[in-house]
Amino acid sequence: MKTLLTVIGARPQWIKASAMSRVFNTRAHGLGEHVVHTGQHVSSDMSEVFFRELGMNEPGTRLQVDSDVSLRMGQMMHGISESIGRVKPDAVLVYGDTDSTLAGAWAASRLGVPLIHMEAGLRSFDRTMPEEINRILTDQLSDVLLCPSDAAVQQLKSEGIYTDCRPGVLVKACGDLMLDTARWIGGAPTPVISTSKKILLTLHRPSNVDDPDQLHRWMDAIRSSIKQHGFHVIFPVHPRTAHALKKVFGAEWSTQMRTWGIDVQPPAGYVQMTDWLKEVVAVWTDSGGLQKEAFFFHRPALVLRTTTEWTELLDVGATELCKDPAELVERSSGMFHRKYKGVFETDLFGDGHAAEHIAEALQAWFQK
Q1: How confident is the model at residue 111 (pLDDT cuts 50, 70, 90)?
Q2: How far apart are CA 356 and CA 212, in angstroms?
Q3: How confident is the model at residue 166 (pLDDT cuts 50, 70, 90)?
Q4: Distances in Å between the alpha carbon of 344 and those of 112, 113, 184, 189, 292?
Q5: pTM tops 0.85
């Protein structure tokens, strides 16, 4: 039995890691895991609810870290390094592009333990985003790079991170783990309700919410779109965003939002988000994960950012960038005049059995 030290710290990682936990627990591939929760997200709404809903293995180690980013990174690196020393894993497994991902990659590399990166090869080409730096550095340090799509494999090949250039490194497209979980929890996509005017909104990127003027502009644009089109916006609010909204709009910000037609909700678990995706006609988001989840449930998405790492979704027309709040009214209107026939049937992210394919690839890699 090979032991993997699984490093997780934020919502999208629970969704991906839960798919792997379900496969590891079958013991069919000779793989087991020790889960380290870095403490990057610690509230019940952002963390514990996902363990309960998704059948993920409970963490064997939980770190206590500071909220300050610079302190937190060092504390995570230290805690993961201690866990490696105690557990003595055969490899460290990291997911995605968070600070927890880079902390796990650094610790594994520093201690000479093989590193496996799930969701490798993604690029937004915007180095002002911390996630972009985390992706690039983690891919450079990894021994096994498991990609959600062929496009991600080609990106790594263009950067020289490929078996031909780095002997012993495995690069493989196995599909997207978030599709596994979407099908496990939510089943097959459902048709859009023709009379629906519901929109699912998430907003949490520092570039959107940390600047009070920019946050105000986004909320004004959302309000204008609601007035023009009669939308009903469901808005589960990230703790970071709630703090920023209180500073901009005052203590009664949530009451004010509801008068605009915005259904303010606390951070939601995966099952609730899945239920909302089935209700809405479209998604507005600056989240990487929700862009894909919208695609999995056949809902178009406006990406409230200047770039996206999921360029495949742009290429097929499932998503569209909304780079500035001033564009929101026009672009949201345009979504209702577009024809999406065939767009969501495009096979971009595998067959919904990525965890099985990954386990098979890791089993073969360990046997080399």
Answers
A1: very high
A2: 45
A3: low
A4: 42, 39, 18, 10, 11
A5: yes
| Residue 298: Cβ within 10 Å count | 18
pLDDT tens readout for residues 1-48: 999 999 999 888 989 999 999 999 999 999 999 999 999 876 655 556
For 137, phi then psi, to 5°, come to -65, -40
What CA dihedral angle connects 232, 298, 286 and 334, to 10 degrees? -60
Q: Please write the tens of the pLDDT for every residue from 272-296.
A: 999 999 999 999 999 999 999 999 9
Joined together, the tokens standing for residue 25 give 């627990």
| Spatial contact of 40 and 67, defined as CB atoms under 8 Å apart | no
Q: Which domains does the chain possess?
A: 2-176+350-367 (3.40.50.2000), 186-345 (3.40.50.2000)
46 in Cβ contact with 131 (< 8 Å)? no
Question: How far apart are alpha carbons 100 and 222 in whole angstroms?
Answer: 32
